[in-house]
Amino acid sequence: MRVAVVGVGYVGLVSGACFAEFGHSVHCVDKDPARIDALKAGRMPIFEPQLDGLVMRNVAAGRLTFGTNVAEAVADAEVVFVAVGTPARRGDGHADLAHVFACARDIAGAIGGYTVIVTKSTVPVGTGDRVEHIIRTIQPQASFAVVSNPEFLREGAAIADFQRPDRIVIGTQCERAAAVMTNLYRPLAEAGVPLLFTSRRTAELTKYAANAFLAMKIGFINEMADLCERSDANVRDVAHGIGLDRRIGGQFLEPGPGFGGSCFPKDIQALIKTAQDFGAPSRIIETVAAANDQRKRLMARRIIRACGGSVRGLTIGVLGLTFKANTDDMRDAPSLSIIAALQDEGAAIRAYDPEGMGQARVHMPEIAYADDPYACAAGVDALAIVTEWDAFRRLDLGRLRAGMTTPILVDYRNVVAAEAAERAGFRYVGIGRRFTPAALERPAPRPEPAARTHSTLSDLVAEVR
Questions:
Q1: Burial readout 365-397 (b: 16 or more C-beta within 10 A, e: otherwise)
Q2: Catalytic residue among 228, 263, 307, 376, which?
Q3: Is 263 a catalytic residue?
Q4: CATH architecture of 2-198
Q5: Which CATH architecture has domain 208-296?
Q6: Structure pTM?
């Protein structure tokens, strides 16, 4: 099939490359010529495991092409995907649909024969109706259908999620459009992947509901982690115990510093606003959003308390900057809140991330960046692991500890075993478990050039959050 994808951001590029891998002829367009030129030269605009190989393989096979002319891409396409950004609108939290509607106008002026126009972007309930109205107003005689086909891709695992999805949601009640979409996804349908056909509005809401539910699971286990710390329980065992229940499942039950990224924060805000507009406010989701924002703001306190109540004049090392592992995405990353709070308290920051430092420099040009975890830890007064990169699970703890001024390790992702960290000489602070006396101890004050008296004041830190 002939497929056009408008927008080569995260969703558009992954979707276009995967459709090409299925054997379709895909032309991806974007109004940013620099992005298109980079793709033609083999440079990916985002980091996503396996994406570069997938793109280059299908470009070489002639199934995947890139350009900037929307009309040219749409004219001969049987299916046109709208995969442009829908960021939170400034001031009110609603999804900003300006790019979607501009795309609809561009498409309207270019479609020829029967065309299925598919919103892949995450859009509020009723957006498809407005897209259809725009196109029908511009092209009253056009033969087309507007379909909702939300994506459920996880950054860092997007290729696998697209090629082996749990389900494919297709919002249309047009039989002809349903047949086109069935043919488009035939390789997956033949592999046993369910194709769920719903109304267009139902499909639009399903995407938001899925993200909100997953965000709620993260918020729930974070609150259970706080309770575990106070009640001498272990959140990992709690998560495992409830996750074995098939009604609950084990995914998204890893405690941490709060969720971020390009989807959850903006999507739950958009769902909150949509629910309010329809007169059916979602109090649970409102609470999840508020609790997550507060959690990210308060996370720096763990480091401050582990350092004896003040980080003024100290250097803090931060391992991991992206909002999650296996991406370079810094949008709403917890590290941004943690670092800002530490800087406000007078700390200097040195950071390392395997893939995210290019993006991080845009947000935090004033902090120091290291070439590897050990260089990041050299001479610091405390070290924090903020992102769960696999490389951080394999650190040489003895080497890490040897380079530090003070052996404080605050692990926001529980990627390091507490016992191993303590054997290596660290005062270890994790998430969701009662801390040992060593972890609660206030370290000796940082040595000055002249000798000074050292003391231990464990009563100053009764808890670490």
A1: eebebbeebbebbbebbbbbbbbbbeebeebeb
A2: 263
A3: yes
A4: 3-Layer(aba) Sandwich (3.40)
A5: Orthogonal Bundle (1.10)
A6: 0.88
